[in-house]
Design a protein that fits this description.
The protein is mostly helical. It is built from 16 helices and two strands. Pfam families: PTR2.
C-alpha cells in the first residue's frame, strides 16, 4: 500500500541549524577589528594632531576626549536602533560599512597633502592653522568611526537586546506623573496591576511616589479582559516600577565610576611622557610610545586570570561568598588603586620634569632624556589593577542588583560611565589650561611638557580620586547591605541553571497572599 505525503509537510521539516560555535570567530574578529580601529588609534592620534594639524596638547586632548566619549555613547543609541528598527545583523552591516568609511577618510587625511595644513617653517617655526574644511574632513572620519562602533559593539556583544524592546521605563514615568495627585492606598489588597504569574505583586516602599504608576483606579476602564493595561502610558505593572527603582537605586554607585573613568582615559599625557624618555629594551629595540598602554591591558588580563582561578576559590572558603569578597568591596578597592595610580603618575612626572631641566631639555620637548621609560610602568600596572577591580566589580554589581529583564542594561552602564568620564576629561583639561596660562605663564598642560606642570595636573586628579573614594564610602553605606550575586547552581527544574540570591535586605518578591 502506497502512502501519500502531504507536500506541505515537506516544507515543515527542520532546516539545517544555523549559528552556534562556528559563528564565534566571525563575531570576535569583527569586534576585535573595530576595537583596534578605535583604541589602537587613540594614543598615537595625539602626535598626529600635534604634528599634522598643529594643535596644542590641550586642544588635541579635548578633541580626542570628545571622540572617545562619542565612541562609548553611540553603542547605547545603536542598541536602541538595532532592537527597535533594523535588527542586529543589519545594524552590524551598517556599523561595519560606516566604520570602514571613517577609516578611509582618516587614511586620506594622511595621504592627501591638501587635507592637512602645510608643515611648519623650520627657520621661523611659524605654523599655519588648519582650515575649517580640513578640520571638517578630519572630524567627519571621527564621527563615522564612532557611529560604526555604535553599530558593531551592542550587536556583537548583544548587550542591548534585552531592554530596549521593553519600553516600560518611559511609560512608567509618564504614568507616575499623570497620577501624582492621587493618594497611595493604605492597604495592599488588589489595587496594583501586575502580570499574571509574576512573583512581584506589590511594590516595595522605596521611592513610593513611583508606586502610583501601577495603581488601578478603575479596574473596568484601566484593565482589559486579558489582564493587560488599556493605556500603558497611564497604568504600568509592578515589575516595571521595580525595574526603574532598581536602576535609580544604583545611580549613586554608578556615579562613583565617572572619576575612575577619567583616570583610565588618560592616554594623551602618558604618550607624551614616554615619547620624551628612553624606551630602549635592548640596544636595537625600543617600545613605541603608543604601546605603553599594553602594560595596563596585560596587568588587567593577568590579574583577572589569577584572581578568578587562584584567589577566588581560597577567599570563597574563608568568607563563604561565591566571589570571595563583596562586589562593593571590589569597586572600592579599584577606586583606591586608582588614587594610587594618579599619585604615582604625579611623582614620576615630577622626576621626569626635573631630569629634563637638569639635562638641558627645558626648551626642547622633542629631546630624549637619559631616563628609562620603564618608570611609567608602575602607573600603568596600577591603572590595570584598578580597572580589573572596579570595571568588573561594577558590571557584576549591576547584574546582581537588576532583574533578569535588565541584565543588558547592567552590562552597558559601565560603558556609559566611560563616555561621561571622557567628556569630563575634556572639561578638566580645558579648565586647567585656561586657569594656568596667560600673562607670560606656561600652562600646566603646555605642549612643551618640560616647561609645563603635568605633575600638578596629576595631583588634581589624585585629589579628585580621593574625594570620589570618600563619596563612594557614603554611597555604599547609604545603599545598605548587598551581598548576593547570581551564581551557577545545580537546580532541578531551573532551565537556566541559575539561582538569584536576594542581594539586599529588602525583599523583591512578595507572596501573593500578602
Amino acid at each position: 500500500m502506497e502512502t501519500s505525503l502531504d507536500p506541505n509537510m515537506l516544507t515543515q521539516q527542520p532546516s539545517r541549524k544555523k549559528g552556534g560555535f562556528r559563528t564565534m570567530p566571525f563575531i570576535i574578529a569583527n569586534e576585535a577589528f573595530e576595537r583596534v580601529a578605535s583604541f589602537g588609534l587613540l594614543p598615537n592620534m595625539t602626535r598626529y594632531l600635534m604634528g599634522g594639524y598643529h594643535m596644542d596638547v590641550a586642544t588635541g586632548t579635548y578633541v580626542l576626549s570628545i571622540w572617545s566619549a562619542a565612541t562609548n555613547f553611540f553603542p547605547v543609541v545603536g542598541a536602541f536602533i538595532s532592537d527597535s528598527f533594523l535588527g542586529r545583523y543589519r545594524t552590524i552591516v551598517v556599523g561595519c560599512v560606516t566604520s570602514l568609511l571613517g577609516m578611509i577618510l582618516l587614511w586620506l587625511t594622511a595621504m592627501i597633502p591638501q587635507a592637512k595644513p602645510p608643515p611648519c617653517e623650520a627657520l621661523s617655526k611659524s605654523c599655519k592653522s588648519s582650515s575649517t574644511a580640513q578640520l571638517a574632513f578630519l572630524f567627519a572620519s571621527f564621527v563615522l568611526m564612532s557611529i560604526g562602533a555604535g553599530g558593531i559593539r551592542p550587536c556583537s556583544l548583544a548587550f542591548g537586546a534585552d531592554q530596549w524592546d521593553k519600553d516600560g521605563n518611559p511609560k512608567m514615568s509618564v504614568a507616575a506623573f499623570r497620577k501624582r495627585h492621587i493618594d497611595l492606598p493604605k492597604s495592599k489588597e488588589a489595587c496594583y496591576h501586575y502580570i499574571k504569574g509574576s512573583k512581584i505583586v506589590v511594590p516595595t516602599d522605596m521611592l513610593r511616589c513611583l508606586n502610583k504608576a501601577c495603581i488601578i483606579i478603575n479596574k473596568e476602564k484601566d484593565v482589559k479582559t486579558d489582564g493587560s493595561a488599556t493605556d500603558p502610558w497611564s497604568l504600568c505593572t509592578v515589575e516595571q516600577v521595580e525595574e526603574l527603582k532598581a536602576l535609580l537605586k544604583v545611580m549613586p554607585i554608578w556615579s562613583t565610576g565617572i572619576i575612575i573613568a577619567v583616570n583610565i582615559s588618560q592616554q594623551t599625557f602618558p604618550y607624551l611622557q614616554a615619547s620624551s624618555m628612553d624606551r630602549h629594551i635592548t640596544s636595537n629595540f625600543q617600545i613605541p610610545a603608543g604601546s605603553f598602554g599594553m602594560f595596563t591591558v596585560l596587568t588587567l588580563i593577568i590579574w583577572i586570570a589569577v584572581y578568578d582561578r587562584l584567589i577566588i576559590p581560597q577567599l570563597a572558603k574563608l568568607t563563604g561568598k561565591p566571589y570571595g569578597i563583596g562586589l562593593k568591596q571590589r569597586i572600592g578597592i579599584g577606586l583606591a588603586l586608582s588614587c594610587m595610580a594618579m599619585a604615582t603618575s604625579a611623582i614620576v612626572e615630577n622626576m621626569r620634569r626635573k631630569t629634563a631641566i637638569r639635562q638641558g631639555f627645558a626648551d626642547n620637548p622633542q629631546g630624549i632624556l637619559n631616563m628609562s621609560a620603564m618608570w611609567l610602568v608602575p602607573q600603568h600596572c596600577l591603572t590595570g589593577l584598578a580597572e580589573a577591580f572596579n570595571a568588573i566589580g561594577q558590571t557584576e554589581f549591576y547584574y546582581s542588583q537588576f532583574p533578569r529583564s535588565m541584565s543588558s542594561i547592567a552590562t552597558s552602564l559601565f560603558g556609559l560611565g566611560m563616555a561621561v568620564g571622557s567628556l569630563l576629561v575634556s572639561v578638566i583639561v580645558k579648565m586647567v589650561d585656561d586657569a594656568t596660562k596667560g600673562e607670560g605663564k606656561e600652562s600646566w598642560v603646555s605642549s612643551n611638557l618640560n616647561k609645563g606642570h603635568y605633575d600638578y595636573y596629576y595631583w588634581i586628579l589624585t585629589i579628585l580620586s580621593v574625594m570620589n573614594f570618600l563619596y563612594f564610602l557614603v554611597c555604599s553605606w547609604a545603599y545598605g547591605p548587598c551581598e548576593g550575586e547570581r551564581t551557577k547552581v545545580p537546580s532541578e527544574g531551573d532551565d537556566e541553571g541559575m539561582r538569584e540570591e536576594e542581594p539586599c535586605s529588602e525583599s523583591r518578591t512578595v507572596d501573593s497572599s500578602a
